[in-house]
Amino acid sequence: MKNHSILHLFDPKDVETFVRQDGKYPFRRSHRASLKYRLDRPELYLDGGLFCENEPSWYRQRNQFHQRLLSIQQVAANIEKLDEVNHALIDQIDNCLEKNRNTIGNFQAIYMWALGSTLKLFLDLNVYKLEDELVRTLIQELHNSLTGTDGTEIKSNKWLKQPSKCPYYGMLEQSQEVLYRFVSEQVEQRKTESASNALYLSDWLFKDHLKQSDVISFIIDTLMAGLHTTSYTVANLLNHIANEKAIRDSLQKEIQEFLSVQESITKHHIDKLRSLRSCLKETMRLNPVLIGTGRLTTEKLVVRNYEITANIIVITQNQVISLNETLNFYEPNKFKPERWFHYRTCPHLTIWIWS
Ligand code: HEM
Question: Mind listing the UniProt keywords for this protein, alphabetically (predicted)?
């Protein structure tokens, strides 16, 4: 396998300079084994899908899905849908706590919530009405797919020449088969229902006329993308809130002011829950689930007067940047959501967290 030099960027100004030159097709060197897996099965997949592909194939996928996903109206319409899943997690919070400790330790309920959110959004399925065995299998196979993806990228090259001898590739193969079977059956079923509430799905299939195989691969990818990211973020958020009584009290006050117990949460409420939003941002600053963003350069570019040639892996070190005191992060290791009330004082903050 070709070795690449790695350039780490620790200064947000350099990250900005880099991102601005990233071009129409940002190139990620990741998910290469999944790409092989999908390209080996042309009867099921048109290509590797959004995560695996680069350049025009990535652009094709991105173009198909991003408009509806980024539409504020669609996001707003989906907030109420997720309320049911969120309430189920709230009811189970006690089961998530570690014995005799005030911290989140048991992840099963949180994984179920994360899986449930994606299933609700894209397949209009209520995870709490599925059989326990099926839910356990889906969560396990998603873990396996993620472990297989990381393993083939970071731990073993064997799959390149001898896929059958690479345990990580085997894991990926086996788990992707299960996920494909589940998602494709569900998509078929939703298609035949006259009044499906799976709005994204019906828009993609019946208004945008996307290929069913693309939609299936996209939903599999979002199930993978949404499991660990949102679970660990929510667990960290809950831990911070649990440990900070003053913040907990002020959140409770804010929520009582804007949201009555019987009401379903809507976009209108979220706009007003400013402290809650700041707690989430502060959690993502202190405990980002991804250390940064990676790219492989495809052409020469310049950062801080240094020329960076093609084929260099560039990693933006968001996690390090987010603990940097000189960027207005006073007391950077402390959970201080109120710092986000004044975020405009630091122009770089929005660039790396929300880009
Ligand atoms: C705390 C939660 C999450 C974090 C921190 C996060 C972070 C990221 C990051 C850093 C990337 C790479 C962006 C890049 O290479 O430029 C990414 C890509 C992506 N994520 Fe997430 N993610 C989260 C949750 C989710 C969820 C819940 C879904 C789907 C339901 C999702 C779907 C995707 C997709 C489809 C991409 C590929 C986008 C593209 O290539 O255009 N993510 N995410």
Answer: Heme, Iron, Metal-binding, Monooxygenase, Oxidoreductase
